[in-house]
Amino acid sequence: MAIEKTFSIIKPNSTLDNNIGNIIAHFEKNGLRIAGAKFAKLSKEKAEGFYIEHKERPFFGELVNFMTSGPVMLMVLEGENAVMKNRELMGATNPANAAEGTIRKLYAKSVGENSVHGSDSATAAEREIAYFFERSELTNRF
Ligand code: RTP
Ligand code: MG
């Protein structure tokens, strides 16, 4: 299996709860490594563009409000099978359904304030990484 990259966000509930280090440690202990990172406060326009696929969903406004309510940690993670590995480590969207030991089970508050975002496919990862990072901001070990 080739090394691949995926995109991750530590959402405002977890930056505010001081869980940035715990969540990064979780990735690092489970085979993913940081290939790029920045701490930021998203503008409304940037958050709306990121979640454009959810524009017609009833929770879109709430989602954008939440994602702009505090700082976020934007990260590119890399490792074997990184996209699916990250989704497994995150757990189900709703923490009530998330498996024991997953990031959302450990740190999420609700289906909205669910601690982390992770790309759901290699195609999404490519778009999301390019949406936030310049090529020169990423390590290139492989
Ligand atoms: P993400 O994109 O953040 O990694 O999460 P996901 O794939 O597990 O979930 P997705 O269906 O893509 O939804 C994106 C984010 O929208 C919020 N959401 N709120 N109130 C609701 O019913 C609801 N449903 C989804 C969550 O923050 C979810 O992560
Ligand atoms: Mg999603």
TrEMBL record:
Top EC category: transferase
Keyword Transmembrane: no
GO molecular function: ATP binding; metal ion binding; nucleoside diphosphate kinase activity
Binding-site residues for ATP, renumbered to this chain: 11, 59, 87, 93, 104, 114
Family statement drawn from the similarity comment of this UniProt entry: Belongs to the NDK family.
SMART domains (UniProt xref): NDK (SM00562)
Species name: Peredibacter starrii
Protein name: Nucleoside diphosphate kinase
Catalytic activity: a ribonucleoside 5'-diphosphate + ATP = a ribonucleoside 5'-triphosphate + ADP; a 2'-deoxyribonucleoside 5'-diphosphate + ATP = a 2'-deoxyribonucleoside 5'-triphosphate + ADP
Oligomeric form and interacting partners: Homotetramer.
Gene from which this protein is expressed: ndk
Cell location: Cytoplasm
